[in-house]
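ESCALATION

Customer reports they have been waiting on this structure for their group meeting. Please prioritize. Original submission:
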Amino acid sequence: MKILFINISDVVGGAAIAARRLGKGLEKYFDTENTFLVRNKMSSEANVFPTRRNKFEQVTERWVNIFMNLAGLQYQYLPFSPKFILQKARQIRPDIISLHNTLGGYFATPMLIPLSKIAPVVWTLHDMWAFTGNSAHTFGDESWKEMKNSRANTKIFPSIGINTGSLLLRQKKRIYKESDLTIVAPSIWLYDLARQSPVFEGKEMHQIYHGLDEKVFFPHNKAAIRQRLDIPADAKVLMFSAEKLKGNPYKGGQDLRGILSEINSRLKEKIHLIILGSGSMEELNKFENFIIHWVGYVSEEKSIAEFLSASDLFIYPTRADILSIALAEAISCGVPAITFDLGGGPTEVVVDKLSGFLVKPFDLKEFADKTLSILYDKKRLSELSQSARDYALKKFSLMEMSQKYYDLFLRLKNRS
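Update from on-call: job pushed to the front of the queue and completed.
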């Protein structure tokens, strides 16, 4: 089976990680032939092709996207990437097109119709954008259910200058209706929201959790890894990770400082904090009771698993997440996680008192309280470590995810 994957990146971001793992799982278990088309190619893999082929195309398309968004014409026209995607798809002649994150100014929404005439499109949602006017998240606003777009949503990424959200929603509904399109949501929460959307009326929908390789993400030898990182074997170790430490207001960076400030004021000894992610948060260095290990952005899975295995607890104060691959990786490595009880995807990974703990949204004091109470309870940490690992094995299996997608792809291929 030939599968064409389309995503904004081949390496960076949750959607890239999910798409890459799906591709590897399908290739490993079902011998599929995979090709990736991405806006930003970061790897050297031969089966990955960038949709913008030179600096001129990159700069021009970036500015076109900015102006189109300001005019409220989000993703209506882009001069280079859509043409390249359609040409490459016709050349490859895939059996299935696996569509992922379409944000970022490389995928024009109207091209979904001609694309789905080449092969059935299975769109894995990584945010709410597909069924809102313009925003990736709406933070409780439900105007999209009535095919409307509140003014507040226009300022949420990816923002638009003029509130054309209702028009964009009507256009999405028409395009989806005319397309051979199947929807997959990686969390029950997102699946339930998508089912309530008028734009997906009549469309087939499935819920399939992201999978990860349990032979990579498992509890490594904590003492050996700590020795390599120059962390004492008996030290208390927290970990936080994000793609960007600053620049994304949703992924926890803005609340991390407040939580660490609370913890720092109560500590009577120094503890270690491992931070993964691009960028810097130099303001954290003022917390004298933390020994911070600034790692930078890490994409290599084995390294991520080792850093996690060196930790006692994973803290992740996200404000918006569809599922959270970072949380799934943590619990698969036997590291209990603490996150806000947002009622969405993260609560399907962190089950309170089983794979970690849930905290009242945005209550930084309670977050700090819970972190310290668990960090210094060795027996509870050990119990949670085992139950977290067991839960991850049942919920986020790479083989199970691959099997479900393959069965879906095969049925759609045979139908067409």
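Sent to customer with the following note: The first helix runs from residue 14 to 30.
Escalation resolved.
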